[in-house]
Design brief:
Shape: elongated
Largest sheet: none
Radius of gyration: 15 Å
CATH architecture: Up-down Bundle
CATH class: Mainly Alpha
CATH superfamily: Hemerythrin-like
Distance between the termini: 34 Å
Number of strands: 0
CATH topology: Four Helix Bundle (Hemerythrin (Met), subunit A)
Number of domains: 1
Number of helices: 5
Bound molecules: fe (ii) ion
Structural class: mainly alpha
């Protein structure tokens, strides 16, 4: 899969959509890395930026959901928490891994994050779109 932003992914809140766009850019970079591997440092920096952005974005989105009275915000928060734990584990694995482990991570990570994010936006995030529109 090659992840790209398009309007079908817009939930209708400018800040949240801008975060999703940047997350998609970073994940696309990781996807491209399996065909044309950049330096280990570049991958580590991309992972660090993605992790920081996810943390900031998820807190923003969770606060927003509480503000707009989205009833399933707790389930949604748990989905975010699981992704962050997974990302932390991958980053630790990458930092400590040998060249073979790192290559394995680069081969699979972009695709799996792309699948996670598009599924998350199109199913979970879209559940609060009517609350955004109703504001
Ligand atoms: Fe979300």
């Amino acid at each position: 899969m090659s992840i790209v932003w398009d309007e079908t992914l817009a939930v209708g809140d400018a800040a949240i959509d801008a975060d999703h766009r940047r997350m998609i850019e970073l994940i696309a970079l990781l996807e491209g890395a399996s065909a044309d591997p950049p330096s280990d440092d570049r991958i580590a920096l991309t992972l660090a930026e993605l992790s920081a952005l996810c943390r900031e974005h998820f807190s923003r989105e969770e606060a927003f959901q509480r503000t707009i009275g989205f009833p399933d915000h707790e389930d949604h928060r748990l989905g975010h928490e699981m992704l962050l734990k997974r990302l932390d584990a991958v980053m630790a694995h990458y930092a400590d891994g040998c060249a073979e482990v790192r290559a394995g991570i680069v081969r699979t990570l972009g695709d799996s994050l792309a699948t996670w994010l598009t599924t998350h936006i199109t199913t979970s995030d879209m559940e609060f779109q009517p609350y955004v529109r109703g504001r």
